[in-house]
Each structure stands twice: as structure tokens, then as C-alpha cells.
Amino acid sequence: MMFKMPIVDLMKEGDKLAESGKRVSVLWQEPESLVFLARGREYRSEFHINPSDEMMYMVKGQMNLHYRTPEGKEEIAVLSQGSVIYTPSGIPHSPRFPPDAYLLVQERKRKPEEIDRFQWFCPSCDAFLHEESCHVADYKADPVSKAYQRFFDSEEFRTCKSCGTVMPKP
User: How far apart are CA 170 and CA 159, in angstroms?
Assistant: First the structure.
């Protein structure tokens, strides 16, 4: 077996990603390491709870990383181009950046017993709306898009039990 140490031109990979229309390009996925380049979404509202630590590097553009404190308060960390941020496992976070921006993410590949969670909160009163969960065996399957589809396809999931607001589809 030949030993490989991949070298990736992040700007070229980002341009290929944009041309393809896809959101994620997995650069490598090994038992102890997962690295992917993500392109922003026009709309993002969920908070991802990752069972592994994450390092995010803003390759191009700017990102507002929404996150929830242990007390449940929503905060925003602004990550400018060329900046890096560490997000510990278990912190609900929502990377929000435009489709022409690129983010490099490094985390650990999931262990068989680990579950990723995606949570939504009411845009009017901030009450909890819904949670999707899944085991992410292969990040190439784009679990965020699948969780989004399940959530937005259900008006029941998008309806706040506290104030009655229905989160609109993007």
C-alpha cells in the first residue's frame, strides 16, 4: 500500500465546489480525521451538535458562527477570512455564510456509537422547535441537507408549540 499525504489547493477546490452546486467536498475521511471544504448556504437556521471537536478555518469570505451558551442564550462569533476557530464537542452551533464563501472544517470521524444532532428554535420566541439526529458514517452523504429536508418538509416540526409561529421554508 502506498502512503499518501494529500495536498489540496483550497481556492481551486472551492471553485470546483461552487461549479458543481454541491455544498461539501470531503478532502479526506480517515478513522481519526475528517476534513472537508464547505460552501455557504443561502439560508441556515439549525444548530448542529457535534460529538467531536471542530476546527474551522475561513478560507474565503466571512462567517457568522451562531452558537448557544450552556444557559441556552444565542451568541455570534464573527470569523473573517483567514481566521480560525475551535468549537468544542457538544456546543450547539450554526455556521452562517454566503454561497460564494468557503470554510475548511477538521473534526474526528464519528465512532459507531456517536450521534449528531440538529436543533431548530422558534424565530419569534426562541422556544425549541424540533431535533433531528443521525449517525454520520460517511460525511459525503451530506447529513445537514438531509436533516434540513426532513425538518422543512413537515409543517408540524416548523410550528412553535409556545407561540404558534410557523418557521417558513427557505
Answer: 15
How is the chain split into domains, by residue range? 10-158
Give CA–CA dist 30/28, Å, rounded. Answer: 6
CA–CA distance, 98 with 39 (Å, rounded to integer): 8
Residue carrying C-alpha cell 481551486: 12
* Helical segments of the chain, H only: 10-20, 143-152, 155-158
**pLDDT mean over 65-69:** 96
Kindly write down the DSSP assignment for every residue of 80-128, as one continuous string: -TT-EEEE-TT--EEEE--TT-EEEEEEPPPPTT--EEEEEE-TTT--E
- Check residue 24 and report its DSSP letter: E
Q: Which residue has the cell 502512503?
A: 3
Q: What is the mean pLDDT of residues 56-84?
A: 96
Least confident of 61-65, 85-89, 131-135, 154-158: 131-135
CB atoms within 10 A of CB 18: 15
In this prediction the pTM is 0.88
Q: Which CATH class is domain 10-158?
A: mainly beta
Cell of 76: 455570534
Classify residue 60 by burial, with Cβ atoms within 10 Å: 0-12, 13-18, 19+. buried
Sign of CA dihedral 68, 47, 97, 107: positive
